[in-house]
């Protein structure tokens, strides 16, 4: 295998849900179809060198060389998908990945509000109707300038149309936490399930499963306590997010000192990076879509591509990132 410099650009890929989507109870969930995951792994195997979390860490912090076109696979949120579907697929190809899981879902077995919102959206065919229902809730709570809220929080992005973006942002951080929780709980019970505890138990991987995955070379990193937007959190909330992350990793035996931290929603700033670093983490992952060139100066701001940015066919010829990843 051709070796290259530790400063060669690394293609860090970000995944979330990976499952047999079409035949699932939630076919509209924003997830990667399992068959597409397999073919994307085939593509990455053919054109990149998939590296382990340990190899990435050694290159970033110790200057170790990397293979040509290095690629690191990362998986956010700690879903049972990752144990049931991702883990076997990686094992079959002698690959490993880096997995990020919040404390409340992994250890406390409580469903995160971010996931409740995702499944509410998955159960409703018309997102515009959900957005209007949210407006009705707000009007009942005395909000009288819905148009301004729509303008501020309803900008489309590369993942969501304006209605979905508005619905998510309002229920992720824009509204006061008690009101968010009240609205989310009501909509989840109406559209998804009346048994949140049972739903959470099947949605997330368990500590024992995480330990099994670590035993074969996969690694786990921190992903907050409640999966809050860190840069929008109060000082007290940020401290709780980071300390919860530490407890999660300690429970499964994953490293904190010199460990990995993934900012939920990619929400980070200098205050967040300092809090993460003070807890002992030395590598932080964002959602900025770009290749990452290892550097000690940017170790707490590692950029990542989303799975949608890369081909899902081994014969694909249109991959602009491949040329950027190739060192002359």
TrEMBL record:
SUPFAM superfamilies, alphabetized: Glycoside hydrolase/deacetylase
Signal as UniProt keyword: yes
InterPro entries, per the entry: Glyco_hydro/deAcase_b/a-brl (IPR011330), NODB_dom (IPR002509), Polysacch_Deacetylase (IPR051398)
GO biological process, one term: carbohydrate metabolic process
Gene3D superfamilies: Glycoside hydrolase/deacetylase
Pfam family membership, one: Polysacc_deac_1
Keywords: Signal
GO CC terms, sorted: extracellular region
Domain NodB homology: 69-328
Signal found in the keyword field: yes
Top-level division of the source organism's lineage: Bacteria
Compartmental location: Secreted
GO MF terms held by the record: hydrolase activity, acting on carbon-nitrogen (but not peptide) bonds
Predominant cellular place of this UniProt entry's protein: secreted
Membership in a protein family: Belongs to the polysaccharide deacetylase family.
Function recorded in the entry: Is involved in generating a small heat-stable compound (Nod), an acylated oligomer of N-acetylglucosamine, that stimulates mitosis in various plant protoplasts.
Name assigned to this protein: Chitooligosaccharide deacetylase
Organism: Shimia abyssi
């Amino acid at each position: 295998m051709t070796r290259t410099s530790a400063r060669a650009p690394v293609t860090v890929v970000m995944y979330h849900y990976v499952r047999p989507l079409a035949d699932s109870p939630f076919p509209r969930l924003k997830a990667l179809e399992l068959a597409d995951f397999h073919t994307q792994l085939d593509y990455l195997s053919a054109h990149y060198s998939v590296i382990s979390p340990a190899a990435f860490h050694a290159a970033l912090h110790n200057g170790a060389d990397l293979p040509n076109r290095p690629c690191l696979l990362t998986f956010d949120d700690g879903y049972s998908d990752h144990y049931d579907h991702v883990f076997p697929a990686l094992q079959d190809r002698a690959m490993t990945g880096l997995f990020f899981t919040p404390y409340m879902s992994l250890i406390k077995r409580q469903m995160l509000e971010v996931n409740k919102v995702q499944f509410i959206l998955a159960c409703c065919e018309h997102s515009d109707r959900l957005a209007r229902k949210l407006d009705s809730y707000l009007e009942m709570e005395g909000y009288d300038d819905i148009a301004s809220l729509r303008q501020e929080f309803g900008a489309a992005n590369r993942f969501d149309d304006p209605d979905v973006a508005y619905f998510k942002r309002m229920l992720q951080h824009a509204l006061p936490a008690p009101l968010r929780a009240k609205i989310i709980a009501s909509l989840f019970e109406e559209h998804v399930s009346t048994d949140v505890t049972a739903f959470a138990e099947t949605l997330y991987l368990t500590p024992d499963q995480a330990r099994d995955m670590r035993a074969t070379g996969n690694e786990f990193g921190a992903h907050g306590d409640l999966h809050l937007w860190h840069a929008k959190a109060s000082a007290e909330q940020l401290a709780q997010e980071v300390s919860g992350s530490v407890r999660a990793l300690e429970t499964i035996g994953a490293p904190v000192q010199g460990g990995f931290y993934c900012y939920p929603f990619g929400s980070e700033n200098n205050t967040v990076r300092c809090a993460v670093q003070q807890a002992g983490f030395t590598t932080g992952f964002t959602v900025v879509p770009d290749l990452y060139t290892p550097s000690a100066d940017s170790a707490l701001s590692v950029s990542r591509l989303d799975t949608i940015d890369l081909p899902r066919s081994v014969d694909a010829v249109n991959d602009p990132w491949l040329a950027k990843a190739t060192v002359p």
